[in-house]
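Hi again,

Forgot to attach this to my earlier email, sorry! This is the prediction with nicotinamide-adenine-dinucleotide bound. I've pasted everything inline since the attachment limit keeps bouncing my files.
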Amino acid sequence: MNNPFENALAQLERATSLVSFHPDFLRVIRHPNRQVRISIPVKMDDGRLEVFEGYRVQFNNARGPYKGGIRFHQDTDIEEVKALAFWMALKCAVVNIPMGGGKGGVTVDPKPFTDGEKERLARGWMRGMADVVGPQKDVPAPDVNTTPQIMEWMADEYGKITGDISGAVITGKPVESGGSQGRGTATAQGGFYVFETLREKLGLPEKCTVAIQGFGNAGQVAAQLWSEAGHKVIAVSDSRAAIVNSEGLDIEALVAHKASTRSVGGFEGAQTIESIDVLYQACDLLIPAALENQIHEENVERIQAKVLLELANGPTTPKADDNLFARGIPVVPDILANAGGVTVSTFEWEQNLKKENWSEQEVFDKLKIIMDREALAIADKATQLNTDLRRAAF
Ligand code: NAD
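Structure tokens for the complex follow:
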């Protein structure tokens, strides 16, 4: 199995072989500043006590407080969190926001948990981390399997421990509890702005066929945005199944189907296939929006999309990158494509600190300026260096 942190370092080497950086800088940037591991005891509803392992990796804060989401997943470990924290440091620099890179997690499958169990786990994570996070130190956010409600519990716990009730310790909170307008859809929205800005340069038609891996916060909103803009979403997947219809899927009906059955599988008017096969559909645009290491040495030859846009973090391994570059298939990299999430998270932090509430229009206007500007800068850099977009972004 690919170690995501080794992949991240391989990406760094791939990029820094093109441009010379000071060797001291390269030595430092390979190592996280701090790695925190905690044990989180959680009383389950049936009276049992379970203990989960939690993490926070504070990679680099040269640009500002550490920033990055918290993931609850059974496969999460310190190596994964380290890679995700490293990518956050680069991502914040790519979009030029005053934040450093961090990431958190818990090794747990929260799907069978009741709300009470999730709340005790969330509060336990924050109790264990309260002395290392803070509005001027480290500001977490949601990621896979963590929600605005979970952010609210964590913010509340932090307030009880420290007395700081500004909410600026964590972003992605519900709007009525200090969250920002637009945060829930910001990751996919930012990716969509990048897509619109680069579409012609990437050689894509005005109306594209689109396949999306993952149907959570990033993937589901992407399906809605691309389909509302008149593109044809022909395939989507979640962890259980994928569905395909070359005529295009009715996304609103699919959202309702997923909400009631908890899977995209079995959706009427589409063929249900193996989850992984979503990646191999012939389409203009493939959007990985699930987990890392999905497109690798062994399956990259099966990719038929004309362009990839990574809403997930780290979905493409360095060897797969080389293959796609050689085949002339551009990859819009995660540290640009999904940076809308951390950008609006930073807007939320700023609003909490200043006690302001910006309208959704204001949030998206500001987001669009940043995403358009950085997408063009990276595309220009890639042309100038005659390289791929990931190396240019790095
Ligand atoms: P989420 O928990 O809301 O959704 C994850 C989705 O992926 C679910 O639909 C799940 O069923 C699916 N999935 C899981 N394993 C899968 C598999 N093996 N094959 C297919 N689908 C699978 O999480 P999210 O917030 O949408 O995050 C998805 C990706 O986007 C992650 O890589 C995350 O780091 C990245 N990301 C998220 C944000 C954000 O703001 N939420 C920001 C930047 C990047």
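The first helix runs from residue 4 to 16. The two ends are 24 Å apart (CA to CA).

That should be everything now.

G.
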